[in-house]
Amino acid sequence: MSNVRDFGAVGDGEADDTEAIQHAVSDGEGIVEFPRGNYRISKTILVDLSKESRTSLVGRGGVAKIVMHGPGPAIFLKGSHASSADPGGFRPEEWQHERMPTIDGIEIEGQHFEADGIRIVGVMQPTLTRVLIRQVRTAVHVTDRARNLIVDGCHFYHNTGVGIHLDRVNLHQTIIADSHISYCRRGGIRIEDSEIRNLQITGNDIEYNTNRVHREKFPDDDDLPTAEIYIDVVNGTVREGTISSNTIQAQNSPNGANIRMIGSGPEGTHRAGMWTISGNLIGSQRINVHLTSVRGVTISGNYIYSGHHRNVLIEGSRNVVLGENTFGHNPDYKDKELATGIRISDSDNINLNGFLIQDAQAGQHTVDSAEPIQRGALVEIVRCKRVNMTGCQVLDGTPTGLLIDDCEDTLVSSCSIIDQREDKLMKTGVDWRGSTHGNMLVQSRIGGAGKAVAAPAGLVQSGNLAD
Question: How many CA atoms lie within 13 A of 277 on its CB side?
């Protein structure tokens, strides 16, 4: 073990400890220990694993702080891994010198407007535990290539960029767990232009990752597209992922979403998919879950609430299951309400089953900050093929419960589409428009203030109870 004080570091927040810490990393015994103190640095501490061999940076009990007063990352983990995660893809020297560099129990604080936290390139099994990173641009930036990344028990807080940025990276086998990622201006977890497989985002609190608390420095950036989890792979592919057991919350922003997945490429292919989103609390954004051009996504077992524009918006996608979720409101609003809603457009092979969605009692937004919306129904299915909607409850829709427009081979069965409010606002239970090819409405309970079903003559209906 090498104590940075033994290499000349002072840790008083005044002396420049850059050279002493770099000396401890380059010439120490592998475990570089930081006793309690504020370690001022002015340039990046490079951990070049092929030269320094196996290395860990450890602050005992979280009492050590590295304060970055220069541009760039405070710590740069650099490896030479260039293959896959298959056992045959590792060179012997990687196991000998480069495996599992660890950063544990350290705070990193930025004191330069271009300061970042940790950069990771070409590293096998990088492991971050009990790390706090705040007031930087990007807390953790992974680029180029990496394998088997673990982030566990960390805090990434109040940064002007991204909490965890997977940026133009070829990355497999990643776990982000048990961490708090909040108040990062450009998103909590952001994936762009990358090739990623096997990504688990589990048990985190990911919240308020918008420009709202950064307005003083960035007054014109409120409409910056952002999300707590933002996946944009127009120039890559992201598949085989889970988002589970997280709290994913925010504040309404003009181009914001809690979870946003954009999967189309130049050829119109579906580059994002094979994902599950389950067991999460997702709420308080313009759109809670926004999927564009994805293939193979299952959304189930979540409570999804307070979507200022839509709870779920699915566009140009295929093979999506929207299962047993509850869509509603935050009862803490009391007399202030947000209208809810699901819209699916230009998509094929969609299963909707067992969800419950309830509209605002007022039938419209009564929260001052919410933008007015004009929607056709509480649930809208537009220009889609092969949609099955089964066993769902659509309650208190305004002005319509369910709108199906220009769809083919669509089946609605065993659903309750009812206005249970004392003052009925649902003028039409089911508004079915356009083509009737292969479409059926069966065994459903439909009731509102006006017409139960408005549909073309060719629609097959059977066994419905309507009033």
Answer: 27
Model pTM above 0.90: yes
**Measuring CA to CA, which residue among 297, 295, 296 is closest to residue 270?**
295
Q: Say if CB 374 and CB 429 are below 8 A apart.
A: no
- Percentages helix, strand, coil for the chain, rounded to the nearest 5? 10, 50, 40
The pair of structure tokens assigned to 276 is 């599950």
Nearest to 260 by CA among 305, 229, 301, 225: 229
Q: Residues 139-158: pLDDT tens digits? A: 999 999 999 999 999 999 99
Residues 97 and 52: their CA atoms lie apart, in Å, by 8
Residue 230: how many other CB atoms lie within 10 Å:
25
Q: What is the C-alpha to C-alpha distance for residues 464 and 399, in angstroms, rounded to an integer?
A: 21
List, for residues 242-271, the tens digit of each pLDDT value. Answer: 999 999 999 888 899 999 999 876 555 678
The two three-digit tokens of residue 88, written as one number: 């045959």
Q: What is the DSSP string of 441-462?
A: EES-EEE-SSEEEE--TT-EEE
Closest CA to 247 of 191, 293, 196, 305: 305
Residue type, 37: G
Where would I find the H helices in 79-118? 92-97
3-state SS assignment for residue 24:
helix
Structure tokens at 255: 């181009």
Convert the pLDDT of each residue in 170-183 to its tens digit: 999 999 999 999 99
Contacts of 88 (CB under 8 A, 6+ apart): none
